[in-house]
Amino acid sequence: MFRSFPTFICAVIAAFVFLPNIGFAQSFQTQSKHCNNPDASAALRVEACSWLIHSGDLPDKGYGIVYRLRALAQIEDGQYEAAVADLTQAIAYDPKRVSNYLERASAYSDLDNYDLALEDYNSVIFRDPRNADAYYYRAGIFSDRDQLDMAILDYRAAIRLNPKDSYTLNSLAWLLVINPDQAARNGKEAIGFAKRAVELDPADYEIWDTLAAAYVEDGQREEALKAYLKAQEVGGQERIESDQNWLSENGYYSGAVDGIANEATTAALKACIASSCQMYSEYY
After folding, report:
1. How many CB atoms sit inside 10 A of residue 225's CB?
2. CA dihedral 184, 186, 192, 196 (to 10 degrees)
């Protein structure tokens, strides 16, 4: 999720505290606090925001914010269709607020409606061309649709706008390594992006895996093995077991798939690297 708007809500609360009907003002104040409290349960926030909407006493901008806050609670609760409806209302009240389009795109994606999600990301980029999130998430849709050239362009744009996002750096490096179009691969450039990602998030074993794949693509076998072993060290038993399973399915490993590091697993990694294989390249 992106952001809520406590400052405006507090202003709305202040305006109603001085109403002649003290009981109503107190109720309004209580419901406003619940509606805008990220630590409250999703159900309580939905109920409180609904009370405010049905009160009929919000200014126009206030309705837009409260619809958005209720949508955030609905998304948290898995009510994606309701969230889409509320964010559509929020956009009607405030069509210039790009965060509403981002949240609605996220809800559309949760509903597997990627066409409409893409439209919303396009709307964000049209209104705010420097919004790195929109480029990042739109790239994910392009990648899922095998439009890798478009995905790479969007990841590059996101990195220019936010050069310290390890997820974007890793995503771009991965596509530069495993692109089915061999001519579009660039191991050397991928190494640079993956190294930057590792510096930002050394505890993410998937980034070490990407770095290893980049070294494979660039022909640096020893460095590739070091990075794969580091990925196993960071990822632990689950990662080792996953590697053993992949190596077994692809004919490099015949030992136990038990998540325990052993010489046979290392030998299988070496054989894979020697053949320039790209582990998990089917996933992008």
Report:
1. 19
2. 40
Alpha carbon distance 276, 235 (integer Å): 23
47, exposed or middle or buried, with CB in 10 Å at 0-12, 13-18, 19+?
A: middle
Q: Tell me, what DSSP letter sits at residue 182?
A: G
Q: If 0-12 CB within 10 Å is exposed, 13-18 middle and 19+ buried, where does residue 100 land?
A: buried
Q: How many CA atoms lie within 13 A of 92 on its CB side?
A: 9
Cα(246)–Cα(244) distance, rounded to whole angstroms? 6
Per-residue tokens: 25? 């003002």
Show pLDDT as tens, one digit a residue, over the chain (284 residues).
454 444 444 444 444 433 445 444 468 889 999 999 999 999 999 999 999 999 987 888 899 999 999 999 999 999 999 999 999 999 999 999 999 999 999 999 999 999 999 999 999 999 999 999 999 999 999 999 999 999 999 999 999 999 999 999 999 999 999 999 999 999 999 999 999 999 999 999 999 999 999 999 999 999 999 999 999 999 999 999 999 999 999 999 999 999 999 999 999 999 999 999 999 998 87
Q: What angle do CA 73, 26, 20 make, to 5 degrees?
A: 135
Amino acid at 132: A
- pTM of the entire structure? 0.87
Record the tokens describing residue 272, joined without a space. Answer: 């894979």
Q: Helices in the chain by DSSP H: which ranges?
A: 6-17, 22-35, 42-55, 60-76, 80-93, 98-110, 114-127, 132-144, 148-161, 166-178, 187-200, 205-217, 221-249, 263-274
